[in-house]
C-alpha cells in the first residue's frame, strides 16, 4: 500500500478525533529525590556504525545513481544527444538535483547497450569525499554513451540533499507504481496538432521516496486539428525521468519540461522530457529549525530504510532531547500544527512557538510521560512520518494525545520528578551555566544542588512553563537549599487552596530573602547568621500568606 504524505494522515485522524477522553489513573504525589542520580541513554545506531557498513553504503549510492542515470539515458535513441546530470555529493551520498537534455541529434544510434566503460568502477573515486555539486555530462555516440565532462562546484546544500550514504537505495515497488501513475496522469489527454509542436511544464510533488501528485503548469501547442496522441513510450519516459529524484528527503517539487513534435508521415506525436529539476520554495519555519529537522530526519530515514528501525526506536526511548527536537521540528517544517491542534488543542499552541523554546518545553514535558508511552509515541510518530499509520494506529495515537493533554494539569509523580531533577542537574552545569561548574562546588567537590524556582510539586499549575528552563533553575549550596525547602514545606499547608498566583508569590519572596546565595558560592562561616535570619523572615511571610488562604 502506498505511504501517505508526512502529516496527511493527521487529517484523517482529526476527522475521527473525539472531544472527550476516558478516565485516567491518578498519579502519585511528588517525592524529593537526590539530584546526583545518573541515567544512561542508549546511543543512536548511526553513532555506532562501522567503516565497513559505510563503505557498503557508498557503493550502494554509486549503484543507485548509475541506475537512475541509465533509466533516463535508456529513453534516448538519437546519436549526438548530450545529457547533463547535477548531483549533490556529501560523505559518499549522491542526491540528484536536476538533469537536462541538450539538442544536437545526428540520427538514430545503434541498439547497443554500451555505457561509459569503467564508469561504474571509477565513479566513487571521482566523487571521493567531496562535498558540493558534481556535474556529469554524457553524450550518446552511435555505439553507446561516452563521458564528455566531469566538473564540480561549491554551493549551499539543498534541503533535499542527503549527507549520509544509505545501503538500501533501491526503488521500491510502491515508488515505481506511484511514478507510473503520475506519468499516466500527465500523458493522458496530451494532443499535438498534425505536423506541429507542443510543450508542457508540469510539477510533481514528492515526499521522501513517495510521488504524491502532478499538476500541469503550462501546456502550449501550435497549429490546428486534427491532433495526434503521444507515442506509447511517453509514460515510461516520464517514469524514468522521475525515479532518480526519489532518493531525496523531505517534501519537495520536481518540475518537468517536455516538448513534442509530429511528423506528417508518423502515426504518433514524439514527446521528449527535456529537463527535470527540483524547485525549492522558501521554508515555512526558521532556518535553524529547518536545518536541524532535516539532519535528524535523514538519520531516522536511513535507519528505517536499512531496516534497523527496532534499534533506532530503542535508542530513542530514553533520549527525550532527540525525540522533542524531532517532533517539534517536523510539525513546523511539514506544516502539521493546524491538524495537530484538533487532537491536542492544549499542546498545539505551546508547540506552535517553535524553535528551541518549544523543543526545550516538550523535552521537559516528555519526562512526565511513562517510558512505555514515550516509546509508543516515538514509534507511532516515526512510522507516521516514514510510512503512514493504519486505522488502528491512528486510534492509538488519538488516545495517546488525550493522555498527554491530561498530563498537563496532573501532579508529577515520583518517577516524573526524578527524571526532571536529573535533567535539571545535568543541563544546569553542562549546558546552561558551564561557567559555574568550577565554582559551585561544596566541601567534597560535589556540585551544589539545583533548585527549581517554581518547584516541581507545582508544575501542573503552569502548563506553559518549561519547568527546567534556565530562568527556573538556581544552583544553591545544600544548606541554603534546605532552608528554602522549609519555606516551601510551610506553604504546603495551603494544599488545594493555593493557586498559580500564590505559588509565584512564594517564589518571589524566596528570591527576595535568599537571592544573595542563588548561583553564588556560600561561605558558611560568614553567612550562617544571615541565612538564619533570611529563613525566619521568609517563614513569617509565607505563614501569613497561608493563614490568609485558609481563612
Verbal overview:
The chain is an alpha+beta fold. It has 17 helices and 12 strands. Strands 4-3-1-2-10-9-6-7 form an 8-stranded antiparallel beta sheet, with helices on one face.
**How many H/I helical runs?**
17
Unreliable stretches (pLDDT < 50, length at least 5) are 1-48, 307-318
- Mean pLDDT equals 82
> How widely separated are the two ends?
65 Å
Q: What characterizes the major β-sheet?
A: 8 strands, antiparallel
Key structural traits:
two-stranded antiparallel sheet, alpha+beta, 8-stranded antiparallel sheet, 17% strand, single chain, 551 residues
Strand and helix layout:
Elements (H helix, E strand, L loop, with lengths): L7 H8 L35 H23 L8 E9 L2 E10 L16 H9 L4 E10 L2 E10 L19 H15 L4 E2 L3 E11 L2 E12 L5 E2 L5 H9 L8 E11 L8 E10 L7 H19 L3 H9 L2 H14 L3 H7 L3 H5 L3 H12 L4 H16 L4 H17 L6 H19 L17 E3 L20 E3 L2 H14 L8 H15 L9 H27 L1
Antiparallel strand pairs: 1-2, 1-3, 2-10, 3-4, 5-8, 6-7, 6-9, 9-10, 11-12
Amino acid at each position: 500500500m502506498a505511504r501517505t504524505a508526512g502529516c496527511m494522515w493527521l487529517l484523517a485522524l482529526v476527522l475521527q478525533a473525539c472531544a472527550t477522553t476516558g478516565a485516567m489513573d491518578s498519579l502519585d504525589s511528588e517525592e524529593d529525590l537526590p539530584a546526583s542520580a545518573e541515567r544512561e541513554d542508549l546511543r543512536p545506531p548511526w553513532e555506532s556504525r562501522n567503516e565497513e557498513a559505510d563503505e557498503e553504503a557508498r557503493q550502494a549510492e554509486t549503484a543507485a545513481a548509475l541506475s537512475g542515470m541509465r533509466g533516463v539515458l535508456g529513453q534516448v535513441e538519437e546519436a549526438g544527444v548530450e545529457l547533463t546530470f547535477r548531483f549533490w555529493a556529501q560523505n559518499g551520498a549522491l542526491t540528484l538535483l536536476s538533469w537536462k537534455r541538450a539538442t544536437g541529434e545526428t540520427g538514430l544510434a545503434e541498439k547497443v547497450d554500451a555505457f561509459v566503460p569503467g564508469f561504474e568502477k571509477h565513479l566513487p573515486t571521482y566523487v571521493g569525499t567531496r562535498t558540493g555539486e558534481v556535474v556529469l555530462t554524457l553524450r550518446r555516440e552511435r555505439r553507446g554513451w561516452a563521458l564528455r565532462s566531469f566538473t564540480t562546484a561549491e554551493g549551499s546544500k539543498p534541503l533535499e540533499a542527503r549527507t549520509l550514504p544509505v545501503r538500501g537505495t533501491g526503488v521500491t515497488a510502491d515508488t515505481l507504481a506511484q511514478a507510473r501513475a503520475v506519468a499516466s496522469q500527465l500523458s493522458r489527454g496530451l494532443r499535438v496538432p498534425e505536423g506541429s509542436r507542443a510543450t508542457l511544464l508540469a510539477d510533481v510533488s514528492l515526499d521522501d521516496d513517495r510521488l504524491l501528485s502532478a499538476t500541469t503548469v503550462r501546456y502550449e501547442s501550435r497549429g490546428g486539428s486534427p491532433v495526434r496522441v503521444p507515442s506509447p513510450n511517453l509514460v515510461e519516459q516520464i517514469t524514468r525521468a522521475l525515479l532518480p529524484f526519489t532518493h531525496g528527503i523531505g517534501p519537495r517539487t520536481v518540475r518537468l519540461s517536455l516538448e513534442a513534435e509530429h511528423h506528417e508521415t508518423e502515426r504518433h506525436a514524439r514527446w521528449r522530457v527535456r529537463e527535470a529539476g527540483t524547485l525549492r520554495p522558501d521554508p515555512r519555519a526558521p532556518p535553524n529549525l529547518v536545518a536541524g529537522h532535516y539532519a535528524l530526519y535523514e538519520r531516522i530515514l536511513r535507519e528505517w530504510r536499512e531496516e534497523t528501525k527496532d534499534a533506532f526506536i530503542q535508542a530513542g526511548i530514553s533520549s527525550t532531547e532527540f525525540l522533542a527536537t524531532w517532533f517539534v521540528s517536523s510539525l513546523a517544517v511539514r506544516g502539521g500544527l493546524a491538524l495537530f491542534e484538533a487532537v491536542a488543542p492544549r499542546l498545539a499552541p505551546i508547540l506552535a512557538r517553535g524553535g528551541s523554546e518549544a523543543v526545550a518545553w516538550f523535552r521537559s514535558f516528555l519526562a512526565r510521560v511513562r517510558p512505555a508511552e514515550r516509546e509508543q509515541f516515538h514509534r507511532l510518530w516515526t512510522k507516521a512520518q516514514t510510512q503512514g499509520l493504519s486505522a488502528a494506529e491512528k486510534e492509538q495515537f488519538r488516545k495517546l494525545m488525550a493522555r498527554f493533554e491530561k498530563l498537563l494539569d496532573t501532579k508529577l509523580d515520583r518517577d516524573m520528578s526524578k527524571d526532571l531533577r536529573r535533567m535539571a542537574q545535568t543541563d544546569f552545569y553542562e549546558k546552561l551555566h558551564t561557567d559555574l561548574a568550577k565554582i559551585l562546588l561544596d566541601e567534597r567537590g560535589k556540585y551544589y544542588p539545583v533548585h527549581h524556582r517554581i518547584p516541581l510539586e507545582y508544575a501542573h499549575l503552569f502548563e506553559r512553563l518549561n519547568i527546567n528552563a534556565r530562568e527556573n533553575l538556581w544552583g544553591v549550596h545544600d544548606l541554603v537549599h534546605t532552608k528554602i525547602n522549609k519555606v516551601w514545606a510551610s506553604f504546603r499547608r495551603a494544599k488545594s487552596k493555593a493557586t498559580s498566583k500564590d505559588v509565584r508569590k512564594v517564589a518571589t519572596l524566596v528570591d527576595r530573602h535568599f537571592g544573595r546565595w542563588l548561583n553564588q558560592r556560600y561561605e558558611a562561616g560568614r553567612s550562617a547568621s544571615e541565612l538564619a535570619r533570611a529563613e525566619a523572615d521568609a517563614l513569617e511571610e509565607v505563614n501569613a500568606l497561608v493563614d490568609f488562604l485558609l481563612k
